[in-house]
């Protein structure tokens, strides 16, 4: 193993029988690489959080919609959410049936609601006006309402979705108004859901928000509403600081709290319906990394810049949220390099904010090195763009047999032109 800095992927056997330098040579860079074994392990860990018969893991597909990964997640017994016609399309493509897909949308038009209803999906609406619209589009249909529990959590204000400062959900105080809309259109309110935000590393807020939703469910029961589905949302964090030994979220502890709550509540209220958790990141983040190449190294004043092909068109999270992704470095004939030097790792996009890792202590990078941004399986490829008319990368899966196979080809210049209405020479 060419190991300037690779103890993390070595330890988890991320590359199986492959080697990152060969993968980069064979498939080119930038390249998303996924590990099937890690993906399956995460699914099983989540499914094991509660043995309650109604408990399900509703994978939030926005984190990664590659249908090969979706199929693996489906095989592991998860159901799935969708929040756009594109996600419905890809989920169906991966073999999920309509009853396994929950449409959790936000501010959409009548056509989109109708598309979901016509395909037989259960739809969750997140405002009274969307409920009204849904009632007109699908009178007499089944519906879910997303409530805002007034509690938020997340790694950045941009991804906190509970509380007053966010656009999401119906305020619990408006429950009676919501029920009036439901009645007016002959809808059947069959479920309630929430999502407090993305990436918490202790479960306290999540459990507090569960209690809010269960209290709402109890109030609904008193009003004669028979729920079939209660969805607590996602947000489970993963440790991005791999080389600093960051602690994992205590899933066993959280699982115990969750299990106790849903079992006790079901017994108290005679509820035999389903409970969902809706994780995206926890399922897929750690099974993916993105490989890139160091194309140039230079000094600007006292700053050392390592220029790579992992721009924010490839991995947007650092630019968008100042998110941290740990780095590995692979070099032909490399030996562990003990000397750590402060370096700023940047991409090849024409903006100064195109920074992958700012002033990071890393072994000294050299032109030609292959580097990995770890934990890029969630909100990585799905947020990639063709900015600067760069081509979106390929994706490779290391299977259970340890061998790599291409699961998405790299884009081509023809792809860039595929939506144009003028002919190109
Ligand atoms: N359910 C709903 C309704 C959501 O809006 C989300 C994420 C999830 C579930 C899954 O959350 P997760 O378990 O992945 O935290 N692009 C950002 C994350 C945005 C999350 C948006 N909603 C990032 O890269 O950190």
Name given to the CATH homologous superfamily of the largest domain? Alanine racemase
Number of helices: 13
Strand content: 15-25%
Spans of at least 5 consecutive residues whose pLDDT stays below 50 are none
| Helix proportion range | 25-40%
Rg from alpha-carbon coordinates = 23 Å
- Major sheet details: 9 strands, mixed
What compounds sit in this structure?
ligand LLP
Number of strands: 17
Description of the structure:
With 425 residues, the chain is an alpha/beta fold. The chain folds into two domains: 7-34 and 286-416, Lyase, Ornithine Decarboxylase, Chain A, domain 1 (Beta Barrel), CATH 2.40.37.10; 97-279, Alpha-Beta Barrel (TIM Barrel), CATH 3.20.20. The protein contains 13 helices and 17 strands. Strands 1, 10, 11, 12, 13, 14, 15, 16 and 17 form a nine-stranded mixed sheet that branches. Helix 8 (175-184) links the parallel strand 6 (142-146) and strand 7. The longest helix has 19 residues, at 204-222. The protein is globular and about 70 Å long. 45% of the residues are buried. The model has no long low-confidence stretch (mean pLDDT 96). Bound molecules: ligand LLP. Ligand LLP is lined by residues 60, 62-63, 104, 159, 161, 195, 198-199, 233-236, 278-282, 317, 321, 378-379.
Q: How do the helices and strands line up, and which of them pair or pack?
A:
Blueprint: H1 7-11, H2 20-27, E1 31-35, H3 36-47, E2 55-60, H4 67-75, E3 79-82, H5 85-93, E4 101-104, H6 110-118, E5 122-125, H7 128-137, E6 142-146, H8 175-184, E7 188-193, H9 204-222, E8 229-231, H10 251-269, E9 274-277, H11 281-284, E10 288-300, E11 303-308, H12 317-321, E12 327-330, E13 340-346, E14 355-363, E15 370-373, E16 394-398, E17 404-408, H13 413-417
Parallel strand pairs: 1-16, 2-3, 2-9, 3-4, 4-5, 5-6, 6-7, 7-8, 8-9, 11-13
Antiparallel strand pairs: 1-10, 10-11, 10-15, 12-15, 13-14, 16-17
The protein binds ligand LLP.
